[in-house]
What does this fold into?
Amino acid sequence: MTKPLIVGSATARAGEKVSGFIDVPGNELEATRIPVTIVAGNADGPVLALIAGIHGSEPSPIVALQRLRTELDPSTLIGTVILVLIANVPSFTHRTIYRGPWDQQNLNRVFPGNPNGTASERIAYAITTQVIDQCQCLIDMHSGDGNESLRPYSYWNALGLDEGVDTRARELALAFGLDHIVIDRGRPRDAGASVFCSNTAHVRGKPAVTTEAGAVGVPTDDMVELNVRGAMRVMRHLHMIPGTVETMESPVWIEPSEVLTSPETGLWYPAVAADQHVAEGALLGTLTDYFGETIAEVRSPLAGVVLYIVVSPAMGKGEPVGMVGVPASAANLQGPRP
Ligand SMILES: [Zn+2]
It folds into this structure.
């Protein structure tokens, strides 16, 4: 690494591990700082960005990046790792699900962001310009949100802009090692309206993966470790750290998949658990009004596996209640094969 890498207030030269903050300007309420660590290896290699906490109530990846910050050793690292320890500090601190506390926007729907926009748009802009623009590949690490039970899976973005980038993103997903991979062909291709964090990297020619491991706002040790192990496997795949390269040999590819939303506002009572297999038409849960009278039910439009399900009662009309995906066979794969 010939010249230092600068992310926010952190400047790292070869062989250094440096932490700092990306300042996100705003008024007294909305101004925030994104904690980052740069681990710069002694030898040149890829720049990998690992991002946690785009949604603040998804702590398993957040705790995992704290562990990685301790474990990564710049003296044996090839290339550079940028750790974004908590992307959405307002959501984390105020314990919000899905949306930021100030603007009620979902940070993972406003990329590439806007320096003069809402609080969430300014955070997205800071991550796009300081992290995504400086990395070569990216893992955006999520879990079930504070209200969601989830079985681990990742998304393969089959964007269709650049076959080489799509292929490398697929390899990253296989390297991370979650055994269910949702094939996603619907992401926007416009760099100016890339919407999602990982897609913002992908449309810029940088392979990226979104991972989901952990649930219900609790960083259990097994889920934290699954995130740590996935990140280490990606680093071995990229030959950044020593060790045997592992790849998922026969993952369960998921296509199609569908996020189901609530037809009413009220109280949600799930009828299924994460990882349960359901038939087409199976009851996923019921809604009651505030008096406890049943007002609606949600049924699965697909026969498949429950990837996540909301397990707490508060429910608004149009909010997600869960996601069902179909384990893909040759017959139902919709586009180029994975
Ligand atoms: Zn999330």
